[in-house]
Specification:
There is one protein chain. Helices cover 12% and strands 50% of the residues. The chain is built from 3 helices and 15 strands. It has a 15-stranded antiparallel β-sheet that branches. A hairpin with a 2-residue loop joins β2 and β3. The longest helix has 14 residues. The chain starts with 8 loop residues before the first strand and ends in a 6-residue tail after the last strand.
Length: 284
């Protein structure tokens, strides 16, 4: 659910003649967005893994009759749960070779999800996500993601997120690092454990460095909204995010809630509408 931060998706011009210019101009923005997305999505993977374990007598997605409700997990992943004193450890093991998942991304290695308290529903839960030789599209993720989860007065599932992480880019392209504080609210769908009926709002800030050492800060100035309805779940459908890279301020406007893959980017005093396409790699 969550994680949500910016889409980690490719921003390219709708006009073919502008593609190269748009890619070159937005390379730093695209790489930061992608790094943010693949780190934030571990909470989505955790939600799917726990939902699977709660609704299956098996311990492996390879034995599941249907993965139709899961956007990211794959039959090549194995999910297990272990009870340790007052905590529960869920492990998602993608194996030592790249596993092509339902969202098209290749993953390998393990995600550990250690939680105290009931993962869903009433009450509070503390969840810590860590990694063991974990790669997404050959980029290695390091760090921790700490989540405090509870139900608010509207019975919406809330996640307070503090994350410190880094992404070691494939092909020795450098390392992106950041610290992030986010608040995620499931404004629709909190009464179920499924993703397809969720609408999530995300607010928060972050700071860090790009692979070339440039400092970067971000702020969600209007809640980012992701609708998990069919055709919408890959993209934010509304909200604004301001990104400061060095001395430059960039604004991204995801629209008015319409389920599309368009966003307006204001940079260097100019605003352009871009088509968002799912990205699987850094660089060009």
């Amino acid at each position: 659910m969550i994680s949500l931060a910016l889409i980690g998706l490719m921003l390219i011009s709708c006009e073919e003649t502008e593609n190269l210019t748009a890619e070159e101009e937005n390379a730093d923005l695209i790489n930061e967005s992608y790094a943010s997305e693949i780190f934030d999505e571990v909470e989505d993977l955790g939600d799917e893994a726990v939902d699977f374990l709660d609704n299956s007598l098996t311990k492996s997605t390879q034995e599941a009759e249907s993965l139709g409700n899961y956007y990211k997990l794959s039959p090549c992943a194995t999910v297990t749960r272990e009870y340790l004193d007052d905590t529960v450890l869920v492990t998602i093991d993608f194996g030592e070779e790249n596993c092509v998942c339902n969202d098209g991304r290749s993953r390998r290695g393990k995600i550990y999800i250690n939680h105290y308290g009931y993962y869903w529903g009433e009450g509070e839960a503390e969840i810590v996500y860590t990694f063991d030789n974990y790669f997404v599209d050959d980029n290695q993720l390091l760090g921790t993601r700490n989540v405090y989860r509870y139900m608010n007065e509207n019975q919406h599932r809330m996640s307070e997120v503090i994350a410190d992480g880094s992404v070691i880019l494939a092909e020795s392209a450098g390392t992106i690092t950041w610290h992030r504080e986010r608040l995620r609210e499931v404004v629709q769908g909190s009464e179920t454990c499924h993703k397809y009926d969720d609408v999530i709002e995300v607010t928060g800030t972050s700071y860090g460095t790009l692979a070339d050492g440039t400092e970067i800060t971000t702020e969600i100035t209007s809640p980012l909204v992701r609708d998990f309805a069919s055709g919408c779940y890959r993209y934010f459908v509304s909200g604004n995010r301001t990104i400061t890279i060095g001395e430059e301020e960039i604004n991204i406007d995801f629209g008015d809630g319409t389920c599309d893959n368009l966003a307006e980017v204001t940079r260097n005093g100019e605003t352009h509408t871009y088509e968002i396409k799912r990205r699987h790699r850094f660089g060009w």
